[in-house]
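Submission sheet (multi-component)
Chains listed below:
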Amino acid sequence: MKTFDIKKIFILVSTLYSLSACTDRLTMSEPGSAFHKPKQTPIAENIQQSIQVIDPGQDNIRYQSTFSCSRDRLYLESDLKTVSSLFRLPRRQEQNNENIPKSCVYFAMEQFPDLEQMYSTCSSQSSKPESGAKKPCLTSNYVNSVYNSFVDVMSCLKIDQKIFVPKLLNESGFHINALNSRGFDAGVGQLTRAPIEDINSNHRFNRLMNLIKDSPSDACQRIASVPGALDRAQEDAKNRCTVIKPGLNPLRNLVYTGLLTIRQKEIVEYYFEKHQIEKLMNNAGLADFDKEKLIESLSILAYNAGGGTAVNYLKNYLEVRIEKMSQSARGLLSVDDFNFNLNIEETLAKRSELLSHFRKAKEEGISDFADVALKRIENEAQEFGIENMSFPEFLVHFQTIGSRGYNTFLADNKRKLDETFRGGECTPEKFLSL
Amino acid sequence: MHSRKILITLIAFMVLGALSARAELPQDALNIVNETRADLKKTKQFASGLLSKQQADPREKKLLEASQKLRGAAKNSSYSMSQKISVENLSDALEFIAKDSQKNCKNLRSEIILQFDPSGSTEKQSSEVRAALDVLKDVCK
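Outcome: structure written.
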């Protein structure tokens, strides 16, 4: 009798144990694992089958963790748990994958300055961000949410991921709560009011969002499957958390960043034709050049200075080269005149030297110091002769909209990335050159 | 009574005759009549469209003229290079507003900024872009 009781109890306990183990595995398992069997539509099943989730320990990234980070750097963690698991969990990297390695994004995140005024916190999805937060802890949830959203958006919109690494290394270091408190440039893509409004406009919004919704690609379908990811973001600075707060972000911020890239390219192409740039290039002596690469360089500049402005800079440069062709020490226009990777150090040194005019004029107590500084810079440039400058040098002297010499900065970022990643995995082989 | 019958018969013959004459009109002639009617309708529509465009024109014309004037000034004046580029930006912006003046003003404003000064963090805020935005404010009143 006693033996029977023990046997009965044993069976009961073991049944309960195996049941509870099963329940645990069901609740803890993630899409892609054998135990994850929620009710799904065939499309949702396809979306989940298109990626294979792995354990963070199997990943080749040494994530920071709750143990290695102080508590005040973990403020994003609870919100990150609400990011769709399709984007939050590490995916197995396929050998033939066209995506950049995750280490490129991790490197950019790690390199970005650890200054409190550069990061922000959000109390809700539609609040105004408050700057003055610690640099977030680079946990698996954080890095993977950013990386997976980035590669999917860029792959979906057919944008070269590698162009973005030197760019975002400079803009936000891929941090989702990066904030320029002056213009409220927010998140990974440093979005401001104008691009959000531009994409939101009635005659454009559906066309742009349909690029994602209508695409059969796995990446696009994963994005479109996240409820709310393709909804309109709010435009006012007082609601800027709409493109920062984790949950729908970083995906939403990156969708707008990708669409903004497409918009800037459209604007550059429009003004490229309007100002007959190809003809001007030919007249300046360069008939054989990679037009697409030139438009790419201008589109990168456009992100900082605007598409119209970027083309206007080139137009004015070419007009001087044509007008003073016979006096130019550089002779006929050549592809080297458009290579932002040449003489980076000299160009950046020249930039610092020119910018010192602002400091000097301010120290001299001149009330309109900006005007005076610009005049001094332009006088120096006239002395040197625009006809003797390459296009990168011209921009260092005359780019007053956006950041002076922005493209040279990015070329320098590529150089730094290539020094770390010697295989060039993070940057395009041909970047900011023809 | 008899003469009334004859009169009615005559009228009936006349009506029948007229009808059969119309029926006998060659098909080509009928086509021409129909085409002419359609052309006339189109011309009327075009004229009314032109009229409404002429009514909207002063604004567009004003903007295009201002744009041209700026472009001329940029070419011929002794502007410094960065001023010249800013003036040309303004000229392009005005032309863009003129072409799209039927669009939502809010959209135009954001598009002008996107095209000419998206960062807004210039060393010296471009007064020319601000001027374009002022014109836009005026146009959108």
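Remark: Chain B has a mean pLDDT of 72.
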